[in-house]
């Protein structure tokens, strides 16, 4: 006989007590605010064990380049510091996500594992494998959605199909219910009585050797706090966005792309802040209402695309926030050793990228650019999401 605080789960017959922790698997969502998985883990007051699993082999051939690794190192450091301020800590594990999470669940006697949905095919496959591995060990898991203002898997055509053109999709978004407000940052995160072992972050080898990242350090500050500061600064100049966004000599865009890619700020937060600014500030209202920024609220892109066949591999990526590119400051960008090249010398439209995307060079080296995805991942016609605000 079991009580509410003691349950037998799965073939492994693990006993989970009331104070058994929940694991939160941090992925490309390196923040505390508007984090659905973290919020869910906190609802019953159980201890929470945050973990990041370094498994580049599960990226489907789209692992991060040198500058993106540098950014990840800094972002994880910021996240770890934020967790410590909230009474918690960030564990680091390596290997396949399924194996790492299952082993950690056994070590701490976890009552469950929570994580946020990522839309790109490799991330979906990694999550599916992890869920199966955990289920085989008798550990329940939950995947959470909700940090998008509008979910293309929810907003469908009258025939129930995903939209394949942005404008009708945007009209449907505007006609739907307003997105919910972003989730708040937790004031305190309950910690387990004993912490399991963790790898030092330095062991992941993310920092460049030799150190060529001086320019990045001077220009960028990865992390959740700086993402918020950049968004606030953009609102001060949003009225000029339509006129200045294609002039590479001006700082006219949001500079949020790498922050969004690593999940340091959620698209839903960007949406909410922009809408609130439009309601309260005349200058911001003018910017949000302009043809380019208005239909996408400061160029937040939520773009479903048509199914891809083998003849259309140059279409936009399947549900990625961005993929690694390589560029020098102010120079041309090369997308992940693929064939697409952006015009040299600055930001602008890239005809090689389909679906009217504004692909813009990123000044921090291995940037965040929308790009192609393997065709088989989209052959079922599933919706495609691009999360991209402005350019870099």
Describe this entry's structure for a reader.
By secondary structure, the protein is α/β, with parallel strands linked by helices. It has a domain of 132 residues: Rossmann fold, CATH 3.40.50.620. The protein has twelve helices and ten strands. α1 links the parallel β3 and β4. The longest helix has 20 residues. The chain is globular and about 55 Å long. The termini are far apart.
CATH superfamily of one domain: HUPs
Q: How much is the average pLDDT?
A: 73
Major sheet characteristics = 5 strands, parallel
The low-confidence parts are 1-17, 289-392
CATH class of one domain reads: Alpha Beta
Order of helices and strands: EEEHEHEHEHEHHHHHHHHEEE
Provide the CATH topology of one domain.
Answer: Rossmann fold
Helix content: 25-40%
How does CATH name the architecture of one domain? 3-Layer(aba) Sandwich
Strand order of the largest sheet: 5-4-3-6-7
Report the structural category. alpha/beta
Q: How far apart are the termini?
A: 58 Å
Number of strands: 10
Percent of residues in β-strands? 5-15%
Identify the overall geometry: globular
Q: How many DSSP helices?
A: 12
**Rg, Cα atoms, Å:** 21 Å
